[in-house]
Amino acid sequence: MTDILDAYVTSAPTPQQAVDIFKGEWSSILPPHLGVDSGGGAGVFDDGRIHWFLNRIGPIAGRSVIELGPLEGGHTWMLEQAGAGSIVAVESNTRAFLKCLVVKELLGMQRSRFLLGDFVEHLAADDTGYDIGIASGVLYHMRNPARLVELLARRCREVLVWTHYFDAERTAEVPAHAATFAAPEAAEHAGFRHTLVAKGYGAALGWQGFCGGSAEYACWMPRADLLACFEHFGFEITGIEFDHREHPNGPALALHAVRRDG
Question: Residue 119: in which H helix or E strand, if any?
């Protein structure tokens, strides 16, 4: 049994000590000015996808944002730096949530609020409307992705979504990927007929820093169905970028969509 005294820090406070609470679990490279080594490799605190979105929508000063699955607060910080009036970031992974709180403290974030819970259930239960929705790296972790798109259309005027999608030909070219997918199945949600392909997480579930969905599998949509889903639930897709069919983790794209009713 670990001695509870091992949980105490006996030297003067440093940012690195806060980061090291989750040593070996970080996905992100933290901002250089903090002078810390997280061990992560993802550049989400200076992410081209967020820069692209912000360039498209113009000034966000005073605008309200809901962010789904903030992971470690990288995009949250970028949005706050860009001037967002308020950011509600909903994270269901308890360890990721605590890492967000570490980041919030280290970076002195003032207009961001992190909530612990399932963002699908939050969107379904809370009728708050938002100017902007950020759903980067979450749609492909859903078992019912169409439901999430429907809820985003209810709550947000415009959205940035970055997600993987299923491509049968590309998957067949990568045996390691193909082994994780089940056979495609027909699905329907709120009148939207589409195809879903279940993908298991496998060995990734054994990592303490796992940052996928809350079940042992998620469901991906083919690209055409993904785009049709946003149109069906009332969005107009106004831009697509970062459309990488050969992304190492599976084909992916970013889209900017605006609700047609404003």
Answer: helix 119-125
Q: Whole-model pTM?
A: 0.94
Q: What would the pLDDT profile of 209-244 be if each residue is shown by its tens digit?
A: 666 666 778 999 999 999 999 999 999 999 999 999
Q: Can you list the residues of the chain whose pLDDT is less than 50? A: none
CA 208 distance to own-chain centroid: 18
Give the bridge partners for 90, in sequence order: 68, 115
The per-type count for the chain, helices as H runs and strands as E runs, is 9, 10
CB 131 within 8 A of CB 63: yes
> Would you tell me the crossing angle of helices 223-232 and 145-155 to the nearest 10 degrees?
30
The packing angle between helices 74-81 and 94-107, to 10°, is: 30
Cβ(174)–Cβ(168) below 8 Å:
no
